[in-house]
Write a structure and sequence with these properties.
By secondary structure, the protein is of the alpha+beta class. Helix content is 61%, strand content 8%. The protein has a domain of 127 residues. It has a four-stranded antiparallel beta sheet. The radius of gyration is 41 Å and the shape is rod-shaped. It comes from Alistipes timonensis JC136.
């Protein structure tokens, strides 16, 4: 079975990646009822929420909208039993309960899909960390640039005032001083 098809049937419920019983039954080519009976007969293999859990009505209803075409209803107009959600370990255990060649082959593909999803999420997490670091560096650069521009503006204002002062001083010096009236002093020996 294609990895992409399996990955599309992995959902996150209660913060855990799981596969639902009706999807697994379809892949294993058995009825959902048969899969659930096999699980109930071997329930000791699935003890604890880390292997399998039954969805609550609220969880089921939130999933129902996105899965409407996949969810099979009973003749009475709804599901009689809430679906089982199998974690990665639960799916691995399920292959020991369903001892068919198809179950073993499909189970290997499902394990590969879980690993691919995990690797994808880890890659995205590391990308997010890198992105956060880059965002932080850009903010620091923006702040440094803003501070530098403010400093240049302050320096420009100070410089403008000093240049004005220099021009005023040059203007004052360029005003001609009146010449002293009198006889010029002679230069030389007497």
């Amino acid at each position: 079975m294609e990895l992409q098809i399996i990955q599309e049937k992995i959902y996150e419920i209660r913060g855990v990646r799981v596969m639902l019983d009706f999807d697994l039954a379809e892949m294993y080519q058995v009825e959902t009822k048969v899969l659930k009976q096999s699980v109930r007969r071997n329930i000791e293999r699935f003890e604890g929420d880390d292997f399998m859990f039954e969805l609550t009505a609220e969880e089921y209803n939130s999933l129902k909208a996105s899965l409407r075409s996949q969810i099979v209803t009973s003749n009475k107009g709804g599901v009689r039993y809430m679906p089982f959600a199998f974690t990665e370990m639960g799916v691995a255990m399920l292959s020991s309960v369903l001892r068919s060649e198809i179950a073993i082959r499909i189970n290997r593909d499902i394990m590969r899909a879980f690993v691919a999803v995990r690797n994808y999420i880890l890659a995205k997490a590391s990308d997010s960390v890198e992105l956060a670091l880059l965002r932080e560096r850009v903010l620091k650069l923006e702040q440094t640039t803003t501070d530098a521009l403010e400093g240049v503006n302050d320096l420009s204002e100070d410089m403008r005032q000093e240049i004005e002062t220099i021009y005023e001083a040059i203007g004052a010096l360029s005003v001609k001083l009146p010449k002293a009236v009198g006889t010029p002093r002679k230069i030389g020996f007497k």
